């Protein structure tokens, strides 16, 4: 890595966290300062910042241990890894049943972030690679995750957007009112459809993945050419709902 892009403060914070993880509840500021050769003034600022962020916690003896926020990050990372592994295992079976491609995605603000894919051998390949982003309002994946939000949360999320919304095809939803109406139907039926709203010639069904508290944490979808949709529509909806249920906690 080019040195000009390094951030020394982050590197120091990493060293401090590593040292605390090796000696939880044992090290004071002076101990960390001596061990890591960081002057006390800088160490005080780093420790205070990390404590305020919840990365570390100070005990009654002025020693430190890792904080709850890092535990939350760790749990989220493991959960994401487990979800990816489970998706590939289960979606590979669904892919063989339907002969169509499956995607796993998360909601990031007003965008869908694709994080995994099981691709079927079909004549036309759908561009939905991990890391790709699309407007949530124009995709089945996005709509099924937006459906977990309240009207107030939707208003807050889209309050600065000018209407009509950006459209990917002539079928895309372009107003907040139309989007809310669509979300109400999605809540009732438990899945979302995208009938050429994101890509002309392709249709899609998506269902939500929920955690143990019932909150939507991700979603899965099955996409296919619209020529195949009429034949496979019902089996696609059933399979994507079953897959989402298997991946939910």
Automatic annotation (TrEMBL):
Top-level lineage group: Bacteria
Signal peptide span: none
Domain HTH iclR-type: 7-68
Pfam family name, one: IclR_C
SMART domains: HTH_ICLR
Annotated keywords: DNA-binding, Transcription, Transcription regulation
Name assigned to this protein: Helix-turn-helix domain-containing protein
Organism the protein comes from: Paenibacillus phytorum
């Amino acid at each position: 890595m080019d040195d000009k892009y390094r951030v020394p403060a982050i590197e120091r914070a990493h060293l401090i966290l590593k040292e605390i993880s090796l000696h939880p509840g044992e090290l004071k500021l002076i101990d960390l300062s001596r061990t890591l050769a960081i002057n006390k003034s800088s160490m005080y600022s780093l420790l205070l910042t990390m404590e305020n962020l919840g990365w570390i916690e100070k005990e009654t003896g002025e020693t430190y241990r890792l904080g709850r926020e890092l535990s939350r990050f760790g749990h989220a990372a493991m959960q994401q890894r487990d979800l990816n592994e489970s998706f590939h295992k289960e979606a590979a079976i669904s892919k063989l049943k339907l002969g169509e491609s499956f995607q796993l995605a998360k909601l990031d603000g007003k965008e869908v972030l694709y994080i995994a894919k099981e691709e079927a051998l079909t004549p036309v390949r759908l561009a939905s690679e991990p890391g790709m982003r699309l407007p949530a309002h124009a995709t089945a994946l996005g709509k099924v995750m937006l459906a977990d939000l309240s009207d107030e949360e939707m208003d807050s999320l889209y309050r600065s957007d000018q209407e009509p919304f950006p459209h990917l095809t002539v079928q895309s939803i372009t107003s907040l009112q139309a989007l809310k109406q669509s979300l109400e139907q999605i809540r009732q039926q438990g899945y979302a459809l995208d009938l050429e709203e994101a890509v002309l010639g392709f249709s899609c069904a998506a269902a939500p993945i929920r955690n143990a508290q019932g909150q939507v944490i991700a979603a899965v979808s099955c996409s296919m050419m619209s020529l195949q949709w009429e034949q496979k529509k019902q089996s696609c909806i059933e399979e994507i709902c079953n897959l989402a249920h298997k991946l939910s906690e």
